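seq:
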Amino acid sequence: METPGRKKKRLQPYTIPELLRNTIEIYRANIRAFVLPVALVIVPITALNTLISFWTIDRLRQSGLDLTTLSNPNRSRAFFSDPTIFSKLFSELALILLVALGVSLIGTLITQILINGLITYITSENQLGRQATLRQTLSAVRGRLSSLGLALIAYTIILIGLSIALAVILFACGLGLGLLAYVGLILSAFITPVMILENVGVGDGIRRAWSLGKARIWPIVGLMVAFVAASFVIGLIETAFISALYGRSSPLDFNLGIELVQFILTAVTTIFLTPLLPIGYTLIYYDARVRLESLDMALDKLDKTDPRPSDVESPQPAGPFMSSDDFVNLALLTAGLFVLLLIYAAITYAGGTRGIGGL
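struct:
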C-alpha cells in the first residue's frame, strides 16, 4: 500500500547529473535504513580483513624476509637476484594472495546479496513513492536472495572465464581490459535490480541485465567514475591521517592503537560509501526500463494500488547480443581505459625517476 501523505512518483528517465543528484537525495532521505544493514555486514567483514592483514604481516616477519630493501631499487635488484630468497618470497606471497582473494570473494558475495539486495528494494520503493522499513524489506526480498546469489556466482564465473580467455590474446594489447570492464560494469550494475525486482530465473536475469545494461553503459560509467573519485579523495585523506600516526615507524611495526584507529576509519568510510552504488544502479535500472520498455505506462495500467516491477511481465531481450552501437561503446570505453593506463604509467615512471635521482 502507498504510504499515507506521500504522493505517487512519476517514473521518468534521468540525465547523468539528475542521476547523481537523485542518488544523494534518496541516500539522505533513507540514511538510517541504509546504514544499519550495511554496518551489520561491513563491520565483521572489515574485522576479518584486518585479521588477514595482521596474519599477512606475521607471515612476512616469520619468513625472515627483509622487506625494507624493496623500497630501494638498487638494493632490491640484488635482493631478487638470489634465487632462494626470490623463491621464498614468491611462495609466501602466493599463499597470502590465495587467502586474501578467497576472503575477498566471499566477503564481496555476502555484501552483494545482503546489502545490495536490501538497498535495491528500499530505493525501488522510494522511486514508487513509498518507504519500506528494514523488516518489510527483509520480508519482501528473502525469497529472491538465493536466486540473486546464484546469479552473482554465475557472473563471477563469467568474469573469471573471460579473464582467462583474454589473458594471452588481448590483454597484451589492452583490448582485453576494456572488454572485461565493459562486461563487468554492465552485469554488476543490473544483476541485483533485475533479480530482486523482477520474477525471473537466473539465466533470464543475466540476459535481461545484459540487454538493459548495455543500453545505459554511459550512465553506469558516469556513476562509477563519480564513486571512484569520491572514494579516492576520501582514501587520500585517510591514508595521510594514518601516515601521520605512523610517523617514521614502518607499517610492519605493529601498534594496537594505530591499528584500531585504522580499523574504525576503514569501517566508517566503507559503511557510508557502500550504499551509493546500489542506489544509483537501481535508478539507472528504472531509467532503462522507462526508456526501453515503457515501465511507467505498464505500471499505470495495472489494477493495483501498489504496483511494482515484479507485477509486470519481464520482456524477453530483443535485438542482437551486440549491436553496432554497442561495439562503438566498447571501443570508446577501451580507448578511455588505455589512455588512463598511459597517464598512470607516465606518472608512476616520473615518480620513480625522481626517487632514483634523489638517492
